[in-house]
Automatic annotation (TrEMBL):
Catalytic activity field: chorismate + L-glutamine = anthranilate + pyruvate + L-glutamate + H(+)
Pfam families reported for this sequence: Chorismate_bind, GATase
Keyword ATP-binding on entry: no
Molecular function GO terms recorded: anthranilate synthase activity
Keyword Lyase: yes
Annotated keywords: Glutamine amidotransferase, Lyase
The enzyme's E.C. designation: 4.1.3.27
Protein name: anthranilate synthase
Superkingdom, taxonomy of origin: Bacteria
Any single GO BP term: L-tryptophan biosynthetic process
Classification via InterPro entries: ADC_synthase, Anth_synth_I-like, Chorismate_C, Class_I_gatase-like, GATASE, TrpG/PapA_dom
Domain named Chorismate-utilising enzyme C-terminal: residues: 116-375
């Protein structure tokens, strides 16, 4: 334990011990000490990964790296720092606790950078202006507690680590990282992404149950597990991380869970996603920037919303620590927790503890303010800024994850979900007869749900290409064109994306090319067919419904603020007769089909669409069969679309 002893001796004297990381992974009975020089790089592709077995590099990835994907952010210029691992030791947990400083962390001037009132106003604004206007399903807005640490920052961080090790439970990583320019200390509950033996894993966590230590209430937990807001919040981040898995795993991800993650001050619900992939681990990091649990969905527009409503850059909040290496067979490895429940301390002692809340259509400003306080509690107490800031802390609450009723409540969450994502799928399973050898082009409207849709279409037998809406390219050579989902107002006359997708659909309809339109694509198609578009009074974001689709009852998931409406089940259009599946109460059009084209307002690819694959299996043969869908409408208006509002 010579290196840890030397490190602690230097820190106690107020000297710089040199770069290091001290990490406990999950509930291991040991800590790992990594030492070595630090290098700053510009891009994730530049992160060094030297040869050799075991951990080779620990990258401290700031939120601003999201600009590598072309996404918006308040760019604060904080660096991507890499600790090149030249020393790696394992230290028993008891030994580490005995060596780490058992002293209070003294601070001054503690307070949130944004008051509770201001944060509540921001929450209300995002709910009204963003979710209410179709910009996305959920968004995470952060605030930070700031203070000044009195005494050597590294020593304070090591003392805080000792408290976290004693007080916190259920953390994925508990750690101190010192790069020489900053110290990070925290207990992150959430694996963002890992790669081991070619298996890519992600860990969406959402829903927060707050409890005061030993007073955890079983009845209250069961009410939390049945709360529609909490259930839908987890479903939405599950969908968003499945989109990422669809990019980095060859056959998409399989969903495992849900589970209850119990920590000292709160509990979360979580899923695990697993899929086989062969990408370089730095590409995996890039394609999964960053977790929807700390940004929102759809991802690209969530970053725009964050940039509009947050005052300052996020620094390392919502970024990741990424431990890269090789296994004994020479395969790349990756282990990357999300940088949440983490404090950053500057060499001058400036302390920052950022926390955020996930805003969904059911959110209330007061509830989200309370959630930020609860999430900060564990780190604040370890740093001496909260209640019970000294000593070993309260007795942990009894574990409830093994309670039969709790397990049943968790298992019940999967009942309405799509088995396509819950069951293991054989890569060579036969597709739908008649689709093998056919090709599809998916045009992405800035929502990577298209990656999940691509996996479903491939499972049905199609060869699939995905192309961004703004990327030019030929349509020849594709049997089917899918105009996909995305955020925004389909009625906008100035949005270049809407203009481009309308032009694409107009050309497809005029040429008689087989076309499927999904969500935003469906809304634009409906507008071209003469239907009126409306903003819903209450957004259908992450909403699951049973709907009648052309005489068959289907359970499907919606992510939409706008809808087309019609008062009849059929209409005549310039492109032929059209049949509508609609809500008889308000005329909202759930789906439409005509000669060679179809549209669905919901997302058949979503985990919320239990019958999504069945819907596609019904629609696709009709679209790809010569003459399919050309039955005459039984009653139509004379010379103009019937039922137009």
């Amino acid at each position: 334990m010579t290196h840890l002893h030397d490190l602690l001796t230097a820190a106690s004297a107020g000297a710089d011990p040199g770069p290091f990381a001290l990490v406990r992974r999950a509930d291991a009975d040991e800590l790992e000490l990594f030492t070595g020089p630090v290098r700053t790089v510009d891009r994730l592709a530049d992160v060094p990964l030297p040869d050799g077995v075991g951990p080779r590099t620990l990258a401290v990835v700031p939120y601003r790296q999201i600009t590598e994907r072309g996404f918006a952010c308040v760019d604060d210029g904080v660096p991507l720092e890499c600790l090149l691992v030249t020393g790696h030791e394992r230290i028993g947990l008891a030994e580490a606790l005995a060596a780490l400083p058992d002293a209070p962390v003294r601070t001054a001037g503690a307070g949130f950078d944004i008051s509770d009132e201001e944060y509540a106003e921001t929450v209300a604004r995002v709910l009204a202006e963003e979710i209410g206007h179709g910009e996305g399903a959920n968004f995470v807005i952060h605030r930070a507690l700031t203070a000044t640490v009195q005494g050597p920052p590294v020593l304070a961080a090591l003392a805080a680590l000792r408290r976290l090790l004693l007080r916190e439970r259920g953390a994925y990583w508990t750690f101190v990282v010192h790069t020489g320019t900053r110290v990070l200390v925290g207990a992150s509950p959430e694996r963002h992404v890992s790669v081991d033996d070619g298996l890519v894993m992600m860990n969406p966590i959402s829903g927060t149950f707050r409890h005061p230590g030993a007073a955890a209430d079983r009845a209250a937990l069961l009410r939390f597990l049945a709360d529609p807001k909490e259930v839908e919040e987890l479903y939405m981040v599950l969908d968003e991380e499945l989109k990422m898995m669809a990019t980095v795993a060859e056959h998409g991800g399989q969903v495992v869970g849900p589970y209850l993650k119990e920590m000292s001050h709160l509990a979360h619900t979580e899923y695990l996603l697993a899929g086989r992939g062969s990408r370089d681990v730095r590409e995996v990091l890039r394609e999964t920037m960053f977790a929807p649990t700390v940004t929102g969905s759809p991802m690209e527009n969530a970053c725009r919303v964050i940039a509009r409503h947050e005052r300052a850059g996020r620094r390392y909040y919502a970024g990741v620590l990424a431990l890269l290496g090789h296994d004994e067979a020479g395969r790349q490895t990756l282990d990357a927790p999300i940088l949440i429940r983490t404090a950053e301390i500057s060499p001058a002692g400036a302390l920052r503890v950022p926390v955020g809340a996930t805003l969904v259509r059911h959110s209330t400003p007061a509830g989200e303010v309370a959630e930020t306080h609860a999430k900060a509690a564990g780190v604040l107490a370890a740093l001496g800024l909260g209640p019970q800031a000294s000593g070993a802390g309260p007795e942990p609450a009894p574990r409830l994850a093994d309670d039969p009723e709790v397990r049943a409540a968790l298992a019940a969450r999967n009942t309405p979900l799509a088995r396509f994502w819950l069951d293991q799928r054989a890569p060579d399973a036969p597709g739908l007869p008649g689709l093998a050898g056919r090709t599809a082009l998916i045009v992405d409207g800035e929502d990577t749900f298209t990656g999940m849709l691509a996996h479903q279409l491939r499972a049905l037998g199609l060869a699939v290409t995905v192309r961004p809406w703004h990327a030019p390219g030929p349509l020849d050579g594709h049997d089917l064109v899918v105009v996909g989902p995305g955020p925004g107002d389909p009625g906008s006359a100035t949005d270049p994306k809407m203009a481009a997708l309308r032009g694409l659909l107009t050309g497809l309809l005029a040429a008689g090319r087989p076309t499927l339109a999904v969500c935003l694509g469906h809304q634009l198609l409906a507008g071209l067919l003469g239907l009126s578009l409306h903003r819903r009074d209450a957004p259908y974001q992450g909403l699951q419904q049973d709907v009648d689709l052309f005489g068959v009852r289907r359970r499907v998931g919606f992510y939409a603020t706008f809808t087309a409406r019609c008062q009849t089940d059929e209409l005549a259009s310039a492109y032929g007769p059209v049949e509508l599946a609609r809500d008889p109460a308000d005329g909202a059009v759930h789906a439409l089909r005509g000669p060679g084209f179809a549209g669905v307002q919901f997302h058949p690819e979503s985990v919320l669409s239990r019958d999504g694959v069945a819907v596609l299996a019904d629609l696709l043969p009709r679209l790809l069969t010569p003459g399919g869908g050309r039955e005459p409408v039984r009653s139509a208006g004379a010379g103009h679309p019937a039922g137009r509002e």
